[in-house]
Amino acid sequence: MLSIQHIRKRFDDVLALNDVSFDVANGQILGLIGQNGAGKSTTFHSILNFITYDGQITWQGHAFTAQDFNHIGYLPEERSLMTKLTIEQQIVYLARLKGQKARDIRPQIDDWLARFAVKGTRKSKIGSLSKGNQQKVQLICTLIHRPDLLILDEPFSGLDPVNADLLKQAILDAKQRGAAIIFSSHDMENVTELCDQLVMLRTGNVVLHGTLQDVRNQFGKTELFVTTDWSTDRLAALPGVASVTVRQPGQYRLHLTAADAGPAIFQELTQGHYIEEFSQQPPTLDEIFRLKVGEPHA
Amino acid sequence: MVLGPFLMLGLTVGITYVSSRSNASSQNIAVIAKTPTLRQNFIAENPSNIDKQITTVSAAKQALHQNHLAGYLVLTQTDQRLQADYHGPKALSKGLKAQVQNYLAQTQQVKNYQQAKLTAKQQRLLQRTPKLTQHIAASTGTANLAKTISFWLIVTMIYIILVTYASITAQEIASDKGTKIMEIIFSSTTAVSYFVGKICGILLVILTQIAIYLLGGWAIYSWALSRPHLHAMWTQYHALVTAILHNLLNLNLLYLLVGVILFTLVAAYSGAVVAKAEDASKAAQPVVMLGMVGFFATFPFQNNLDALPVKIMSYVPFLSSYFMPMRIINGTVSLGTQLISLGLALLTIAALAGYIGRKYQHLMLQTDSHSVWQHLLKRR
User: Fold this and answer.
1) Where does the sequence pass through the membrane (chain A) (predicted)?
2) Residue of higher predicted confidence among A199 and B287
3) Are A69 and B367 an interchain contact pair (Cβ–Cβ within 8 Å)?
């Protein structure tokens, strides 16, 4: 388990991380979300010991040792490889830095290239590959040594939907074999799809932490999805409705002032009327993100 | 880069050979005489720079016109008196003029003696000349020349290797600065391991280059030894070459290596502290300047290797790479002194490697906003 306890980091006058704490258990995926500059990369850099910090970070119950770094797979936010090397040389070089033997890695390379549909052979120069294929090679470098801790900084950035699905599958495979995984993303759909828990940072502070359901429930079931022949104005006039959005003609999304307004609205809408849809839900992660970003600073 | 000196040497030898071949014919003179023995004796005594094919004035004039001759010499004998007339666009060279005068004087003297009908005793008395003998200790002369050549060889070699590799090291490290590949590397291994590995890699390249030079030098030396036409030169300079090799192939090679390590470390640090990768070309400047200071500081002392500043600077790391080899070549320094100086240099290497290794990760990842001076003044 990766445990981060009360991490605090200051760059000159800027407090980049302020009392950040969370755990990532083995076989669990944590999504780290937040705006640019919220402290996501700084959190990763603290875990990787790139920067000094106050607080405590432990892995499997102890401080990271040099040996532990052999079991980390790290994908930085911006991709970078040694363009003069071949794919094989690059993968073997980075794997050997992770304590792997070249003779164990080389036989796996073709399978990984096929799995990520890399357009190139093991002898292709990195510099001759397209940006997307270089990104896939970098992903292979991150995963090939079967790390126990995966740290992925914006892994879906720049990937098309097909390749994003390949990456999702690779992440789920790593989870399946018990790896602890932490990744950052601006794409809330990916976070919703993959994460067991999420942490939202805002200017270095944890503003949300928990499972996706817990987080959504914190905001109450204030979103009401209805399909009715009522007009927008009539819906807006209902007690407890803060705003109405038209999804499709006849399909509406009502934002409630409080979750307990739902039953009364249901009564009103169904009196002598048939409605095709009435669904009361908590806000989506995307909405929560926007909501938290828009909140005034504490 | 490694083969550069060999290519330069080959080009120089080739160009010199072709140039000398093309100039050779136009530098020759023809010797013409009505008395064949007069011509034959002159050619026998002075075989070089003579065109032996031309035997007539008309042929000589034609060759001179076609610029195939430097000139021609006509030897005549009238009434027991020798005369030589030289025809050419330029005056005779001093050497050839002396040869001609010497030949004429000797031949004329023989004829004079024959005409005077002197007794053998009288001839011997007239041939008596004063004697001048120079007493030069051959070994000392060779040793001094060997020291001078060794001094320039070692100092130049150290300077060129230091400047070349300091520049390469600084630029290579600066160009890595801030790149994400460094994050991936530092997420896999410690900065000290990576830094030491990088320096070792660069040193192995340098050692390979030195080894290639030594092998190349040995191959040229062996080739030269086996050439019959170079045998005379080899015999003449054998003692000198041996002395130079002795001066170079000793503790001086270790000093060269230690100096290279020291300068490479500082070059790596220079590369790591530049503000951004685009400044890579500027990164080597401080180290190159330091190398130049050491190089030029040796000049005033090349003929005064026992001077106090030389003794002091032979202990100062960075400068000792230049100055201690000078003292070793001069043969006025004990082994103990050499080892002390070497020890100081090695201690500096250890201290620098430790310090830079600790700072390397933060500098390369640009996660450290402190300046060099802040680092030196701040206890962390």
Assistant:
1) none
2) A199
3) no
Residue A39 belongs to some domain of the structure: yes
Residue A141 touches partner B, C-beta closer than 8 Å:
yes
- pLDDT given for residue A183 in this prediction: 93
Residues in chain B with pLDDT < 70? Answer: 1-6, 9, 13, 16-26, 136-142, 277, 280, 367-380
Residue A292 lies inside a defined structural domain of this protein: no
Mutate to test the interface with A, among B179, B182, B183, B361 (most CBs of A within 10 A): B183
Answer yes or no: is A136 within a domain: yes
* The domain boundary residue, chosen from B66, B93, B122: B122
Q: Are B196 and B292 members of one domain?
A: yes
Q: Which of B122, B153, B178 is the last residue of a domain?
A: B122
Choose the mutation target among B181, B182, B185, B188 for the interface with A, i.e. most A CBs under 10 Å. Answer: B188
Instruction: With beta carbons less than 8 A apart as the criterion, state whether B278 and B303 touch.
Output: no
A74–B183 C-beta distance less than 8 A = yes
Q: What is the pLDDT of residue B379?
A: 46
Whether A12 and chain B come into contact, CB under 8 Å, resolves to yes
CB contact under 8 A, A80 and B180: yes
Give the total number of structural domains in chain A: 2
Cβ of B180 under 8 Å from any chain A Cβ?
yes
CATH code (residue A277): 3.30.70
C-alpha span between B114 and B127 (Å, rounded): 14
* Amino acid residing at B179: T
Nearest CA to CA, how far is A10 from chain B (Å)?
Answer: 11
B165 and B264: one domain? Answer: yes
Q: Do B185 and A98 touch (CB under 8 A)?
A: no
Secondary structure letter of residue A125 according to DSSP = B
Nearest to A81 among B181, B187, B190 (CB): B181
B82/B191 same-domain check: no
The pLDDT value recorded for residue B25 is 56
User: Chain centroid to CA B319: how far?
Assistant: 22
Same domain, B33 and B117: yes
Domain boundary residue among A166, A184, A217?
A: A217
pTM: 0.69
Considering only alpha carbons, which residue of chain B is nearest residue A147?
B188
Residue-range definition of the domain harbouring residue A239: 220-281
Q: How confident is the model at residue A100 (pLDDT cuts 50, 70, 90)?
A: very high
According to DSSP, the residues that pair with A211 across neighbouring strands are A197
Cβ atoms within 10 Å of A52's Cβ, excluding its own: 11
Share of chain A above pLDDT 70, in %: 99
> B169 Cβ partners below 8 Å, 6+ apart?
B202, B264, B267, B268, B271, B284
Tell which residue, B274, B365, B59, has the closest CA to residue A52: B365
**Could you report the per-residue pLDDT of B355-369, keeping only the tens digit for each?**
888 888 888 877 655
Q: How many CB pairs under 8 A join A and B?
A: 48
Residues B151 and B238 in one domain: yes
Give per-residue pLDDT as tens, B84-133. Answer: 999 988 888 888 888 888 888 888 888 888 888 888 888 888 878 888 88
The whole domain housing B51 covers 26-122
Residue A47 lies in a domain: yes
